[in-house]
Backbone:
């Protein structure tokens, strides 16, 4: 941002977002259409750490607040309040799923994920799990949709635990949740290893 004035979310904008959502869960950022005010020197690293002007944001409450006003439009991410919209950088996914609980078995199983900022989502048709594989190494990167196009990267320890719950279905190895099967890897690739 050389030569540009640093853009920051205004106290007015944040206060308006908090007021609108007070006691009602997440703010309705999908309903707000404020003017774009520029890009903010804020970044979410792949491990879920939020940075402002290159420095990690250490206050969980502030990170939680910012995460509640996050919106994705196309390939870009924004912090949105009723009065302004600022662009931020996200290295991979804006959230990290740091834990999950499994209830039931087989196709009746329900997987409930918790993110590093305290959001929860039950995997299923509205919150699908997907696995992207690095084209060079084949290394899997698993994700679960948390809300409105915002995904969480499932951390390694949770993914290893998920694999223990996996099953084969229609020539794929994958995971069941809420009656939906989420493919992870072709069964044939597991048989070859």
Residues:
């Amino acid at each position: 941002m050389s030569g540009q004035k640093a853009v920051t979310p205004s106290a007015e904008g944040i206060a308006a977002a908090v007021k609108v959502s007070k006691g009602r869960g997440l703010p309705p950022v999908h309903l707000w259409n404020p003017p774009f005010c520029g890009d903010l020197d804020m970044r979410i690293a792949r491990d879920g750490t939020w940075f402002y002007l290159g420095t990690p944001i250490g206050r969980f409450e502030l990170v939680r607040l910012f995460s509640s006003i996050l919106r994705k439009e196309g390939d870009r991410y924004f912090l949105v309040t009723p009065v302004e919209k600022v662009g931020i950088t996200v290295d991979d996914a804006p959230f990290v799923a740091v834990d999950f609980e499994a209830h039931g078995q087989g196709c009746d199983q329900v997987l409930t994920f918790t993110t590093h900022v305290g959001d929860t989502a039950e995997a299923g048709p509205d919150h699908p799990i997907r696995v992207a594989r690095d084209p060079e190494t084949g290394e899997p990167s698993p994700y679960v949709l948390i809300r409105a196009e915002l995904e969480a990267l499932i951390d390694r320890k949770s993914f290893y635990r998920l694999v223990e719950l996996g099953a084969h279905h229609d020539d794929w190895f994958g995971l069941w949740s809420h009656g939906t099967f989420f493919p992870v890897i072709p069964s044939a690739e597991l048989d070859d290893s």
Summary: The first strand starts at residue 36 and ends at 44. Residues 40 and 172 are 42 Å apart (CA to CA). Helices lie at 11-21, 60-68, 156-164, 187-192. The longest helix spans residues 11-21.
